[in-house]
Amino acid sequence: MFGDLFEAEEDAETSLNQASGRVHGLESPPPPRLPSGLCGIKNQGATCYLNSLLQTLLYTPEFRESLFQLGPKDLGCLQDKDKPGSKVRVIPIQLQRLFARLLLCNQQTASTTELTDSFGWTNNESLQQHDVQELNRILFSAIEDSLVGTARQSLIQELYHGTIVNKIICQECGRTSERQEDYLDLPVTVVDTGSLEEGLCNCFVEMETMDGKNQYRCEGCNRLVNARKGARLKSLPPILTFSLLRFSFDFVKMERYKETGKFTFPREIDMGLFCDDPEDADTLYELFSVVIHTGSGFGGHYHAYIRDVDNLGKWTAPENAEICLPTDPSTGKVDYIEFESPVELVQALLSREGRQGMPVDKLCTEMVKQTGVSWNKRFKKTYGPINKFLKKFDDKFVLNSDVNWVYLQEYTGCLQGSNPVGQSLSHDVNNQRSREGGNKVSVHAHNENQQQKCNKMTEKTSCGVTPSEEGHCWFDFNDSRVQSIHEREIEKQFSGRESAYMLFYRKKSMVRSEAAKHDPTHGMPESLIQEVMRENKEVDRKREEYDIAVNKITVKIFFGDQHEFIAGAIQAIPDSLSFMEIPLDRRKTVGELKMLILEECGELVPPKFELSFVKELPAGLHVYDLLTAADSVICQDAYICDGTYFMLWDGVQIQGESIPTGVATEPVYLNVTYGNPSQLSQGFPKNCTLGELKLMLGELTPIDPENLKLCQLVTKDDTTSAVPFSPIDEGKTLEELRLKDGDNLIAEDTKETSSVAKDSLLKKSNKLILEVENRCQDHSAMDAYPVTTVEIDRETRVSDLKAVIMSAFTISSVPGGGRLRVEDSNLGLRPPLHEEQDVVTAGLKSGQHVVIQPGSPPLTDQMTLTFTPGSPSDDLQDLEIMVKKSCTVQQCMEEMVQKAGFSGDNWHLRKTNWCGEAGEILDDVASSLEQCDIKDGDHLLLEEGRVPPKGYLQLPVYFLKTNKDRNEGMLSWIATGISGLFGGGSGDKSDLSSSSSSTPAQAEFTSIGEVIIGKKDTLVELKLQILSLPALNDAVVPTLNYMRVRLKVKDRLTAVLRGNQQTLQRLKVTSASQLCVQLLQEEESLSPSQILLHVCQRIPESLTYAPYQEILWDAARDASPYALRQTIADAFLVPVERIVIAKHFPEKFEWMVLKDTDKANKTIKHRGKKGRGSNSPKKDNLRQAPYHLKDGDVIGVKDLATDPLDQDDFKTEEDFIGLENLRQAIEEKKRRRKNRAVTGAADGCTVQRRPEVGLTIKVDSFR
């Protein structure tokens, strides 16, 4: 139900929006219609059932045209709907507008939001699962009620209404008792019924005998008699609807299930066999719509096969349909990752080579390069080896096995007697793209000569494909996608998990007029036509604006003659025009950029100049490579993007001084303290050695280089010390010494007996400077609390610090003795400090904000806890208590219940994580707080309800659907079924789509239930209990090793549970854990040294990544960055030297590049068997600090061949947004904490929970 859960790919619009999003504040415009020429409907979340029914009504011409006949006199004006006393029939008006958009708008999809708003759906009803048969009856009732008193008030009755006559015939006197009933659709039983005709015979031909205890009381005989009971059709409507009863209830398992057995239905059916003296002889019907349900009895997805009666669409045989290449609007290049069909992907790759073709090996390499996934990983499980696949689809590809070369079939006719090189299609593709002006290009865009040469072959490949007759063209309406299908595809819907659910027939005698064919405006009011035309113009304008905005970039030009090289970097001359920003279109050429610079900068441009890439560093500007691209090269192909900096100079000197260029000479900004003391701060080239640095400092300071000794100021464990460089460091560069921007150095003169600079700096570093605030006074009489600064030694006790603060504020006494608290800008007030500790042990650091307030400080054996009472939706203020560290969970809970003013014992405590989210339940109420690892300042949740028995865990279980589950493996049908089964349940989804996304690793999670299991139970018992869940009843798992269980934290996968005989307690599964199940393609038994990583390749020239691959990396023998790079390079089929990898930290929205450090240059000595020493290089271990690589980590990959610039930049658009959101959240928390300090208000938020509602459509009274 939830969108296209059962589809292999999200619709093109969603993929495009994910790839592009907002550009310069502009929303990505909607894409144009697909080749079918028909418009789809957006899925609002779970409205596929509504979309399927609306498309069926739209392509019921009689319904559509009758609706269009209603004008403002009948329906009123939409603008008057809010006026008192006005009776505006909103539902028919919105149906008219939706139908007009579906017929005329130049968009791939139309929205039903306005229509559902007219239904009164204001409580997220669009996210609820509902039955399309139920909707059909409720919608028809709403339309009937809305049309009361209009010219078409009998619309539903005329088109869909029929009557059934129920008869009981007495077998004694022959008296017949009749009772008529109306119907809008005929329900047909599917269980134990093989066809529609058989089901109708059971209902309307066969008669039931009423005898024995079921005898009938005949009014004529005036006694109980044997009788025959049956029903016949009295009258037939023009549009006949059948509801197939596929859902039943299993009284053994006590659950719903879907009947998936074979149930056939004809294209034409004569209903006269089931009628009782029909009023007219017109009883022949033909099928025109099949609403299909995919899934199980608990959920699924709807789409519809509909016959285009009026020939409004463009039907093309699916096997000959043009392949549309989705493009990235930000680059204009084809996005091969969007392809899910291997046929279309291979065709797209081969089309770039034209008639030349390519070796199969090169085809595989190009596939990895363009999509980031190899054939074997993505398609082999389903389609076999690529050579077998190419031979199977010999109608599309020609494989020469002798030389292992492959061509497109459409070019083979051109190959005979022609140059095998030929002309590439890329030029034609680009021309076609520019002509269409959209985001799709066609691989069949040939020039006329090529088309003439290939005519014979085209005819050959098209033979056997008979175009559908007019009025008999079938299309698959699947939410936003509409595509042509063969009529024979309907037969595949006779049975299975994807099967027909509703059938719509129309009388064969209702022949459409020639004027109605091919004319979407037939019968449509002119006002609606004009409204949609205006919307089309607006969309075209937005597309044009977006095209301009998406290609607009700004480059900054720095003028060399307005700068000078000082302090180790390029600095702007004061009061000079040092730079100018120039906007341009990135599709312009380098030559046009240079001309634009000449026009904009005028006299600032010297007669002869060079452009060099430049970057702004802490030390100043630094020049990198010259712009060497030819003038004819497009800017984006020359790696010129938004925010690029250029230096406009002669390429050699600035102000007569030669400038160091390149990455190797980047300046490191260092602070050097020397003398009495004095300090200098400037940049030094990172490739200079320590000895060369001393020589430079000898010129900058009065110290002789021979007597100069350098130390680095290092802070470790809150202790700052001066660490001297050793003699062996003299030959190492600053980069090898890991000196970075902002580091502090001390330059000492060895001839001096004492170092004033060192002593002064160390003394200063061992002092704490604190900002303190007095909250012991009445705040009402002042604008803000008094704030001052105090300086103390690190050895000062907290009690002494309180005395210093009281003295600074001249406070003589404080109620309760007074206590100190640290106020954090993010976390607010922290717990009161213990006064027996020194300030370092208490966690105080320089620059922190300390508050003194009334109240008693905690004793040595006490801790301070905060807790949230009740449900977060209760919006109650967080409370604080002081309890003994030795008190039990039960005693602590009782105190909290009393503090909150609650009563009863139906409560439990739960831990929270660092960001306040619910964590592990404290189920051992007899344990002390210390035993439960509760620390001073922790925040707990006081929740209603009893916990599971001691020693048991209640764990939610989710099903994991990864990208490859859509296509691969013998178990893929299980994955698809489970995802659809709970598509509308409580499962949450990570917006993971298999299309390219700016979010690296993506997957879909679907909730399938909960398990209660003991902590000492094994992983085997856990897997067996999970398999017993109703959602997995149909899952056939050969062995438990085909099933992977992982921990789920938020929407991310973490540790894989290993060792089937390990207990859950040993595997660190807690009451706060969430489990995720994945069905595998092959058996798996992971060792402790194997790490399951999510690896995704960055798409060049974008902030997006290809879909992730699961890569198992065995770190047993070598856990170095190089070993991981080698494993990833092998998986992506690229040389290891070409890739750079980085680990993603999603909470911080940051990336850490994984590369070997200078440890590789050091050696460690091992003892051999005979005592001989052996030397081996020390390597970074990715399983240790600072990397801590573990299961579920996201690894980004950059290919330097296609993305050479900014090798360490792995950020995505979400990372930039996330960092900005974090910054804003910090500012917001500061504001809220400040308000809370002033008003004492709680820092909480109310969570509005959505109530569950049934399917209803609200209609005003028009009677």
From TrEMBL:
One of its GO terms (biological process) is protein deubiquitination. Keywords: Hydrolase. The keyword Hydrolase applies. PROSITE patterns: FAD_FR, USP_1, USP_2, USP_3. One of its GO terms (molecular function) is cysteine-type deubiquitinase activity. One of its GO terms (cellular component) is nucleus. Residues 39-508 form the USP domain. Residues 1163-1172 have a biased composition (Basic residues). The keyword Hydrolase applies. Residues 1163-1184 are annotated as: Disordered. Gene3D superfamilies: Cysteine proteinases (3.90.70.10). Residues 782-956 form the FAD-binding FR-type domain. PANTHER family: UBIQUITIN CARBOXYL-TERMINAL HYDROLASE, UBIQUITIN CARBOXYL-TERMINAL HYDROLASE 40. This is Ubiquitin carboxyl-terminal hydrolase 47. The lineage of its organism: Eukaryota, Metazoa, Spiralia, Lophotrochozoa, Brachiopoda.
